[in-house]
């Protein structure tokens, strides 16, 4: 009952304070607490005589700033460092909260601190925030608290989060540039069709001659887009919305899209290697933390990010629970690269499975990094060529009648 009462109490907030220390010097800072009176009590315990305590206001734009996975990774690394240095959890959260500029992140840290101050464990406090801390994260923290090795487990989780986010950033880097150029190409083409082509059409009308087929096709396309642009825009928007809803509800569609993504040229190879790296990194982290292999595979299935690999990991978990070796089951799925399977087999035989899986993850993360750099280099001339064909084709279509003006006259 005491815990329920604490949970329904006032939420923790960040307070700005001013006061004087034991030597009479003026000091000020920030402190997380549930009320001004409790903040003043904390300051007095630190030998500070508070003269002013007020709740920190939220800025207009800062309130809507969402918490990113990179923020959680940074929080984990800072917490691991604090615990390793022997700083008490409550004090560690006070220090960490002051280091974040994002108000929502400070609020999250304050709420976790309030749960711990109410007598809850760190793992149970994190479980109340499933949006930011998944089951694997909470299980590893709980394992660390129970074994007395919280700092070690937090460092493992921090390393896992940092490497996972770095891998995702590399994939986004590979996708962002082509997507941006495609959007620019669509916008430029639309402007040419809506604004430039009609100007040329008025000039062509004075020629009194039949226009070339290519030019006539571009003019017809311009007419259609001018009259029905809202239909085209609405159709694209409707397709995106319907596809997104269908993707979320249909397992078959997700499976087909994920399988297709793995088969795409260049991008598919990067996606495949990144999924293998996530599989190895997640399994290495859970196994090294003392989590049973079958339970670790449950976390791995959700971390792969691809339903094809998720189904394969589910099969591996069933095989391993029935006594089959991990490497044999991985080979039977037919989707894992031979090197990953062989290194897993070596790790099982030598009793260093976590170390070998770490090496597998490192190898494939390095390959993804190298391929992303190469892809970016290769995509630049390819995209410029596509832009040249699209924009240049429109320009040629508009000048073809002028080239034939001599024969018309």
Widest sheet: strand ordering: 2-1-3
Strand content: 5-15%
Low-confidence stretches: 1-9, 58-64
Helix content, binned percent: over 70%
Label the overall shape.
Answer: flat
What is the H-and-E element order? HEEHEHHHHHHHHHHHHHHH
Total strands: the figure is: 3
Describe the sheet with the most strands: 3 strands, antiparallel
Polypeptide structure, described:
With 409 residues, the protein is mainly alpha-helical. The protein contains 17 helices and three strands. It has helices at 2-7, 36-45, 69-84, 89-97, 103-117, 122-127, 135-147, 150-205, 213-249, 251-263, 267-288, 293-303, 307-321, 326-333, 338-350, 353-403, 405-408; strands at residues 13-20, 26-33, 49-55. The termini are far apart. The relative contact order is 0.08. Mean pLDDT is 81; it is low at 1-9 and 58-64.
Question: What key phrases describe this protein's structure?
Answer:
single chain, 409 residues, mainly alpha, 3-stranded antiparallel beta sheet, 17 helices, 3 strands, disordered N terminus
How is the secondary structure organized here?
Elements (H helix, E strand, L loop, with lengths): L1 H6 L5 E8 L5 E8 L2 H10 L3 E7 L13 H16 L4 H9 L5 H15 L4 H6 L7 H13 L2 H56 L7 H37 L1 H13 L3 H22 L4 H11 L3 H15 L4 H8 L4 H13 L2 H51 L1 H4 L1
Antiparallel strand pairs: 1-2, 1-3
Brief sketch in words of this structure:
This protein is mostly helical. 75% of the residues lie in helices and 6% in strands. It has a 3-stranded antiparallel β-sheet.
């Amino acid at each position: 009952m005491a815990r329920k009462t604490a949970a329904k109490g006032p939420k923790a907030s960040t307070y700005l304070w001013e006061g004087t220390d034991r030597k009479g010097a003026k000091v000020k800072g920030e402190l997380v607490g549930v009320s001004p009176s409790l903040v003043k009590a904390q300051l007095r315990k630190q030998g500070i005589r508070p003269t002013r305590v007020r709740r920190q206001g939220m800025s207009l734009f800062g309130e809507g700033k969402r918490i990113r996975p990179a923020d959680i990774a940074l929080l984990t690394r800072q917490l691991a460092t604090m615990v390793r240095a022997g700083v008490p959890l409550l004090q560690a959260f006070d220090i960490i909260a002051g280091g974040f500029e994002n108000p929502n992140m400070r609020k999250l840290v304050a709420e976790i601190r309030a749960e711990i101050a109410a007598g809850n464990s760190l793992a149970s406090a994190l479980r109340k925030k499933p949006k930011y801390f998944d089951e694997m994260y909470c299980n590893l923290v709980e394992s660390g608290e129970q074994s007395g090795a919280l700092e070690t487990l937090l460092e493992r989780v921090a390393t896992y989060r940092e490497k996972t986010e770095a891998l995702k950033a590399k994939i986004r880097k590979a996708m962002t540039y082509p997507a941006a150029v495609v959007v620019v190409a669509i916008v430029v083409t639309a402007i040419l069709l809506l604004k430039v082509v009609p100007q040329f059409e008025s000039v062509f009308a004075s020629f009194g001659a039949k226009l070339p087929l290519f030019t006539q096709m571009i003019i017809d396309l311009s007419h259609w887009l001018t009259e029905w642009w809202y239909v085209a825009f609405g159709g694209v928007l409707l397709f995106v919305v319907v596809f997104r809803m269908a993707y979320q509800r249909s397992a078959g569609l997700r499976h087909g899209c994920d399988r297709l993504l793995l088969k795409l040229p260049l991008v598919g190879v990067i996606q495949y290697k990144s999924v293998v790296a996530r599989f190895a990194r997640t399994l290495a982290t859970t196994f090294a933390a003392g989590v049973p292999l079958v339970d670790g595979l449950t976390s791995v299935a959700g971390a792969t990010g691809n339903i094809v690999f998720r189904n394969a990991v589910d099969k591996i978990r069933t095989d391993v629970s029935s006594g089959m070796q991990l490497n044999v089951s991985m080979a039977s799925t037919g989707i894992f690269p031979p090197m990953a399977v062989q290194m897993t087999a070596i790790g099982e035989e030598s009793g260093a499975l976590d170390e070998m899986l770490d090496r597998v993850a490192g190898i494939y993360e390095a390959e993804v990094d190298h391929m992303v750099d190469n892809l970016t280099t290769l995509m630049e001339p390819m995209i410029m060529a596509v832009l040249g064909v699209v924009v240049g084709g429109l320009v040629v279509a508009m000048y073809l009648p002028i080239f034939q003006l001599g024969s018309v006259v």
